[in-house]
Design the sequence.
């Protein structure tokens, strides 16, 4: 735990200790509260309406949703403090900035994925990243075919790949959930070839080494994001608004592709959602539903399903005079 020195130091330590005793990591929250603690300590001030407003001004470089998130972390601390100090200041959440507008995900086409794989082969090898082309190719394959979070991909080790059963072991990911992720034959073959290249070139390939390896260590989640954005730019892939896609868009695309397969196969999609939630590491299908945007291919598949089962129940009304 970080060191705190403001008038809130004891409250912050007790608050974090309680939350972690309940099984929460609270790393992001600790980082935010540490910034608040330094701010208050530098001013020898308590947290009141004026100091909270001044601290919020230091967040102006952030997007509104990010500011709101940090302000909520502080508000939750104040609610905890109020149990002991009923008269303490608690920020009014109604005055917080609005959430971000929901970002429309970019759904990668097969042609775009093929383009990314082709461009990955052309990436430059360096002394720090001698396997850059192979790393990026495998990253694209796994993100596209499994819907992994980028942090989950970054934390994979060689031990987490079972070549006999063709599965990945995702250990204690978001919400402290571990799971097994079955791989397609093509994805398993990509990992096998990648590990064989490492052995042939005498690069580390032991059980505890990162699956995506460079600079004598693995990538961080943020590092994968930076590398993927560079790959998107080099492949000249843009969203409909002209922006670069997000690495997380692969996860959206994976969920939508699964839904489309079920629609087209004629299965009951609702009964399949728990399976998708388990595969993607969600707490419930409510989290999974966030990824199931009603994009055009999905709308067409849903309309076709409705027409197949209920079309006979719908009869067109009489044409109006203007339509004749």
Sequence:
């Amino acid at each position: 735990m970080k060191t705190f020195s403001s008038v809130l130091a004891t409250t912050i330590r007790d608050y974090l200790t309680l939350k972690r005793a309940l099984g929460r990591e609270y790393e992001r929250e600790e980082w935010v509260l540490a910034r608040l603690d330094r701010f208050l300590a530098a001013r020898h001030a308590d947290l009141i309406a004026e100091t909270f407003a001044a601290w919020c001004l230091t967040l102006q470089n952030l997007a509104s949703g990010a500011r709101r998130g940090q302000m909520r972390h502080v508000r939750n601390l104040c609610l905890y403090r109020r149990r002991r100090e009923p008269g303490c200041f608690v920020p009014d959440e109604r005055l917080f900035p609005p959430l971000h507008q929901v970002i429309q995900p970019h759904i990668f086409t097969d042609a775009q994925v093929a383009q990314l794989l082709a461009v990955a082969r052309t990436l430059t090898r360096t002394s720090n990243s001698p396997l850059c082309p192979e790393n990026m190719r495998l990253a694209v394959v796994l993100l596209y075919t499994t819907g992994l979070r980028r942090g989950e991909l970054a934390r994979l080790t060689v031990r987490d790949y079972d070549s006999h059963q063709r599965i990945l072991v995702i250990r204690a990911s978001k919400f402290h959930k571990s799971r097994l992720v079955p791989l397609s034959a093509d994805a398993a073959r990509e990992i096998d070839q990648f590990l064989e290249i490492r052995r042939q070139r005498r690069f580390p390939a032991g059980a505890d080494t990162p699956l995506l390896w460079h600079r004598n260590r693995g990538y961080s989640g943020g590092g994968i994001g930076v590398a993927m954005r560079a790959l998107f730019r080099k492949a000249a892939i843009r969203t409909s608004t002209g922006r670069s896609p997000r690495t997380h868009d692969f996860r959206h695309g994976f969920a939508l592709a699964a839904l489309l397969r079920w629609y087209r196969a004629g299965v009951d999609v609702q009964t399949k959602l728990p399976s998708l939630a388990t595969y993607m590491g969600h707490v419930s299908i409510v989290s999974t539903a966030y990824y199931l945007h009603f994009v055009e291919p999905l709308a067409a598949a849903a309309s076709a399903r409705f027409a197949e089962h209920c079309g006979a129940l719908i009869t067109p009304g009489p044409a109006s005079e203007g339509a004749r």
